Amino acid sequence: MTTTDPAISAPDDRTAAHRIARVITEAFAPGILVVVILLAVGWYSTRGLTGTGWGLLAALFCGIIPYGFIIWGARRGHWTDRHIKQHQQRTIPLVATMGGIKTEEAFAKNWAQLVELPAVTRPKPLVWTPERVAHWKKTGEKPGPVMVWTPE
């Protein structure tokens, strides 16, 4: 039995409202949002290419590779579609995408803190006195490498 009731039948892909809804749904998909937000945060952090590059690296491991893996699996027929509507099929993509996030953490770790530098003696600051100012104006030489105006 078929029905012609528009409230029960499937939506028509040819209507403008359905096309607009489909575009909005795809544009705000979690995989797309993760990439856009990471790029925006990266750019905003430095207002330049450096931050955008770091945002792209994070987006690669947290959005592009995981979402690409899901799309690849859906095209191969491993799960129903890229939205993975059946809960039983979500285990493999979840474990695989978490691996990508753990890889990104290796890039985010501050490896420089593991480097030990030799001890350096800090120069003692000297206070600008009228005599030191006069000597500096006369010769152009600073009395010491670190100069301060007040002793505190």
Walk me through this protein's architecture:
Helix content is 56%, strand content 3%. By secondary structure, it is mostly helical. Strands 1-2 form a two-stranded parallel sheet. Strand 1, helix 5 (130-139) and strand 2 (147-148) form a beta-alpha-beta unit. It starts with 15 loop residues before the first helix and ends with a strand.
List keywords for this structure.
two-stranded parallel sheet; mainly alpha; 152 residues; 5 helices; elongated
SSE layout and pairings?
Elements: H1 16-27, H2 30-46, H3 49-76, H4 91-108, E1 126-127, H5 130-139, E2 147-148
Helix pairs in contact: 2-3, 3-4
Write a short abstract of this structure.
With 152 residues, the chain is mostly helical. It is built from 5 helices and 2 strands; from the N terminus they run ααααβαβ. The protein has a two-stranded parallel sheet.
Given helix and strand content, the structural type is: mainly alpha
Q: How many DSSP helices?
A: 5
Q: How would you state the average pLDDT, rounded?
A: 83
Biggest β-sheet: count, sense, barrel? 2 strands, parallel
Shape: elongated
